[in-house]
Prior knowledge:
heterodimer; A: alpha/beta; 7 helices; globular; B: alpha/beta; 21 helices; about 25% helix
Amino acid sequence: MSVRRLAEEQPASFEFTPENLAWANAQIAKYPEGRQASAVIPLLWQAQKQHNYWLPKPAIEKVADMLDMPFIRVLEIATFYTMFNLEPVGRFFIQMCGTTPCMLRGSDEIKAVLARRVGEQKMVSADGNFAWLEVECLGACCNAPMVQINDDYYEDLTAENFEKLLDDLAGGRPVHVGSQMGRRSSEPAGKLTTLTSFYGDDGRSGPASDKTQA
Amino acid sequence: MTKIIVDGKEVDVPAEYTLLQACEEAGAEIPRFCFHERLSIAGNCRMCLVELKGAPKPVASCAWSVKDCRPGPNGELPSVVTKSPTVKKARNGVMEFLLINHPLDCPICDQGGECDLQDQAMAFGVDNSRYAENKRAVEDKYIGPLVRTSMNRCIHCTRCVRFTAEVAGTADMGAIGRGEDMEITTYLETAMSSELQGNVADLCPVGALLPKPYAFKARPWELGKTESIDVMDALGSAIRVDVRGREVMRILPRVNEAVNEEWISDKTRQVVDGLQRQRLDRPYIRKDGRLVPATWSEAFAAIATRVKATTPARIGAIAGDLASVEDMFALKSLLGNLCSANIDCRQDGTKLHPANGRGSYIFNPSVAGIEEADAILIVGSNPRKESPVLNARILKRWRMGGVDIGLVGERADLTYSYQYLGAGAETLTELGNGKGFAEVLIKAQRPMVIVGQGALLREDGAAVLAACAKLAGAREGWNGLAVLHTAAARVGGLDLGFVPAQGGMDAWAMTRPGALDVIFNLGADELEIAPGAFVVYQGTHGDRGAHRADVILPGATYTEKSGLYVNTEGRVQYAERANFAPGDAREDWAILRALSEVVGAKLAFDSLADLRKALYAAHPHFARIDAIEPGSINIANAGALGTGAFTSAVDDFYLTNPIARASAVMAECSALAKGRLQQAAE
């Protein structure tokens, strides 16, 4: 955590696309008259998605005007939640998990790759493609190590497949979201090590193993 | 009422009281930073921890209601302990946390000596620190010309944030970031837009927000403190004037629940430098077109020559907006002795007249009564500019809910929402037919019609007043006609009958070319006097009036004389003298007394006490300080309503009188406000 300020270079204006505007109005309509301010976080979030995953000043002011809120109230929210990026984050914003399970499974290697290829944290790479940030647990520990790139999780990373992933992203080639070694969701990586037989079949558990019953 | 035991003492308090208030009631002192009686409860400083029997840990007394306390297992009364070792330890701990990041710069901090944190650290803190780490550093913010920031000192009580949102109604300030990185600021460091912004420096319990113009000027213990009354607007806020030597260093609010609660406007507070600048500190006489310094006797001789050579009907007097009741009484008596009927205290030309009854020119429902009103109609006024503190009271009422507010006049951002009814007299005519908002007023138990001077300055001012009085209607024990004045002297002048006597001229007529030969101008700077007449200007500042003068008699400002003022409610208030006028300047009643002898119309009093005796004999209600003499309304010959839009009587809030126009701080505020207006227009 550190002091968060708006970016120095700001676009001149911000407008929601027609689809996003319709979506935003639907969000606002969820709340009773006079309570539109409740929709501030969804609106900021959508604005950020639309604007290359970072929130410029005109967007903050646009959202404030849409919800009839003072600018400062919206700025408070935008600076409070770290999910709102106030600076440009490149085309692909990589949030790398460095919490214990990922660290035990080799997130330090991933970090080294990022440091080498992208550079310092919170800085956009020279080609404008990437920016990265070490974050706390993103809740995909069983497929550690993992990163989140924009909206998607990429799991089971190694230095090699992560480099390839970055190359593919930069090159505009299709990539596979989720596990990078082909397993489905969080199934065991190799063969099954638990629940290999039905309950009681091995004679060590279940009613069959209870000698007093026999 | 609910019973609760505080430190073994049983007290009976309203159920909605917080524990903190209940403890105060029982005489136990509870330290606090974030809690403030007039703001919402934040509960974030944790300084007010007390032990509540049955609660697993100390509770924040400011955020815990008496009605939330449960009785003991055998039905015992809830019991609060404020003096136990646990409470002491809790306070020590909280204080230690607060001081982790608070700089130890008290010796160079303006708040030193009147700092809540300093005082409470002495009373409830520990004497050493266990923290060797670096303290957090925070950038200082620009938040306007009136409040200086030193954000390292901020303890995040958020009083300023709540004040701007809830009392000022402008939501200028906020807290960005979170946790240790939380910072109090305005939106991207723009200047605050409220006319009450100076109050955040008073609210700040530490030295983070300080009055900028007063920075490094004085220490609180060097200052002589005098209780006085403000004259910058007609509200008559209770103020305390802090003086060092002859110089007024600062002006602070005093608590007066009936008038200003504990807020004052920025003009009231920061006009201080205007009291020093452009002062008239010696008499002047115009010779060959130029004003040259003179002695008092030369000035008096020049006046006497002119007065003695003039018939009484060609002599007149106009009283300005800042004159005290005593000054106007002396001037009225002087003109009476000179047998002239030409006197007027209404330099703006308002159509109010004492003949219509006292109720026709005061704020009858009283300022505190705004909180009881259930329908408010504002006519030809922008209360935010004309009396920001009164506007805050309307905002307070609006925030309570259940009130309809309508506006006839100029559209403006009043900080609360209102129903816009129309621009001017036509709308008032329509309302007179009992349609639309008039129905709301008729149905209301406590309707209130606030009439600004903007609507009363017009030709049909009397008709507007009559129409408003009719709209306000009559209720048992409630008079809803509320005349909002812009001048501190006006109600006092009308009470005195400082208006043209039979056959006399009013201010407008007196200032026409060739109307009069001699005009006594008691600090009336807002009107143009046509060339021709010999003008004696008695005032304090080298402003419009002084430029037109033929003789200048230097007077005293409101801090330099003891005087009575009557506020817009008709409340008589007493202002004590805080310092002395500069140079040869004298108290105004004394100047008039001395002058009266020279012009051969000697006044019958030799001291202020004698003057007051004569004043009270003629107008007994002036003797009842802080009371409101109720009045009736009998408006005769009102005439017909005209047409045309109403405008507010105050164009630039920051520059309404000679003192404010002499102030550099007010000039800066005015420029900023103009810039904001332009920006909004673009």
